Amino acid sequence: MGITITPNLVFAKPIHFKGTPTLADVAVKGKYYRHPDSARISYPLVAEKPLGTINKPIKVAIIGGGAAALAALYELSNVKDSKQNITITLYESDPEHFVHVSPFISVRTAGLKAGRVSAAVSSDGPVPENVDHAVYEIGAMRFPEIAGLMWHYASILYGADTKVELFPNPGTVATELLHGDHVDRFANGVWLNDDSPTKKVVEVIKNGLVGNESGENISLFPINGKDPAKISAQLKDGKTTDEELKKIDEQWKVFANKYDNVTLVSAVKQVITERLSQLPDVPGLRDNVQKINYYVELFGTVGFGTGGFKSVFNMSILETMRLLLWEYSNEYMLPVEANVAFLSKFYEKSLEKNPNVRVELARVCDVAHLDKNPKGSTLVVFYRIGTDGKEFPEPQKEEYDYVILATTPRQTSSMIGRIGFNNTGGRKVPLGDHGRRLLPTAYEGTVRPALVLSQKYEAANSKLFSAVSNVHMVCCSKIFASVKKVDFDKYAPEFLNEGKVKAIVADCGLGSSYVVPSTILNEKMKISSKDYYSFLISYAWEDDSKKLQHNFGKYPMNIEDTEQVVNAIVDRTMRYVRDPVDNFYKPWWFGEALSKCKLEDPLSYDWTTFNSAGAFKLDNAGDHYNSHLLFCYNNHALKPALKNKFFLANCSYSHLGGWIEGAFMSAVNAVCGLIVAANDGDKNALSAEARKVVDTLDSVAENID
């Protein structure tokens, strides 16, 4: 659920399926899409068949219980001969994860978590008399139709004929944009003021960044002389040949080297400066410098109409271009009561294929290679956790043949740095937390670092620790409440024939605010849901999110003392603005609505403070080298002389941070690497499509010293 970029929504009505689409309808949209950093790989095609074969018994640990971990579990369980050969232990540290407990009272979260995919249910009383008002999707809540791998898995789990509903993003419903006292309204490409400077600045920036899909090239940031929109069209087209995709892969690398150090704000400013003549004058600004800065700030507020970009202006233009090339106009909801059910079903399907799976409720504190046999093995050191969330004081250990680290960068870096980066072995070191260590006498043999690319040189290995530790994780938060429809609709203005305004993007520091769909959990809720909107009052990133943190109260989730949160939100929205219809100054209707409507069950959540969920990865300028290394890291398996038994899987180790699609892609990469390693570096153990993962992604350990 990272940054959404849908520039076409501003200018044209999106093309929807006739009637309610099925999972099969949606899955076909992203089946052949290739991402620019893996331009020759269509991940849904890779995952259509088992990724490969392992013909010997192996013992695997998967550390983490989110989307990447469960996809890795599924793909490992799907490996040929896996029922006889692969035993798996899943380590998860959150006692409210669905594999540990079941839901219980009031605003409840227990059993509704799986990493960043998590939910809360708002209720008006204790079980069983309570009436549920809404499901708040704290983590992933919307899924782009172009996320082909995700829809591939959803089709397997729920059946291709299962219906799915469109998600009402800003722009697909009546939307209000506020910058200063300037108000715009639009929906599906129709604007209240067709000559709006907001619309024009978005159009100019869109053209300056990605250009045209056909016709004249107009982008200031071309890829091999072509508008990026043309490259995007090729990446989506199933008829694009591998030779053409190979050229795109080469051209993208040149583009990445050229623009990695360019920030989004500098790119936006360049476009506006060079095309200022295409933008209307702004009364009251004395010169072009002020005009340029005004339009930069305006774009910072509205982005592409789906939420402001000011707080992420330091994002690299390279990262922005990835999202623009992954252009989509439609996002959907999963056919589930809460999105965690998708991953829960993933887990159940894995157990059907491979019953040799156990779950440990534990926090892993250290991982290392353990050299007690010629080919090496791994050591996992952990502290078990009780169902009350408290850790037992004694460290535990277990040995495995292979480990998949499917944890956030913050968690991963804490596990891998303790023993240093020298890969020659010969060291016995105490592992575990200060004051309750596991002494070297507790395990046999000597240890080496977990993440390695070199047998001799520490610099090659320490850069992996640096890469993991320096992944830029965006601060991110959501504030939900349930509000009576009759109360909210009393204040929300009508927009032409698009109905009441249901989405707000403004410069008041809330990011985006909008009505979100809520699934129906039971018959009582079916009645209640007719009366309530599930309202996402604030979906904010970076500085906007940080400025709200002191109001959040209990971290990372506030489900008790919510008054200060609500009051802070209302204070931000109290403003006099010029009404876009009658041109009179009056109190902003959104502030009036929030101040006078009764907000039921407010809930605030801040990912930044939740260690096992994190926020989402977004590259700042200069980050590409490290993030791409982590995406390709699992290809170390092609060099068995390294004796490297560790693999990485997490959306933050992909180029789609925050999206389930990125988590699933990284899981496929990890399992492909593990299969190659288990076959002593033989890539022919992979299926023909899966072989592309190791053949076409960059090598990471070319020279074994």
- Give the biggest beta sheet: 9 strands, mixed
Major beta sheet, strand line-up: 9-8-7-18-19-20-17-24-21
Please, what is the average pLDDT?
A: 89
Number of strands: 26
Helix content: 25-40%
Distance between the termini: 41 Å
The radius of gyration over CA amounts to 25 Å
The helix count comes to: 22
What is the overall shape? Answer: globular
> Which band does the percent of strand residues land in?
15-25%
Give unreliable regions as ranges: 102-106
Based on helices, strands and strand pairing, what is the structural class?
A: alpha+beta
Report what the structure shows:
The protein is an alpha+beta fold and 705 residues long. 31% of the residues lie in helices and 18% in strands. A hairpin with a 6-residue loop joins strand 11 (357-370) and strand 12. The longest helix has 19 residues, at 660-678. It is globular and about 80 Å long.
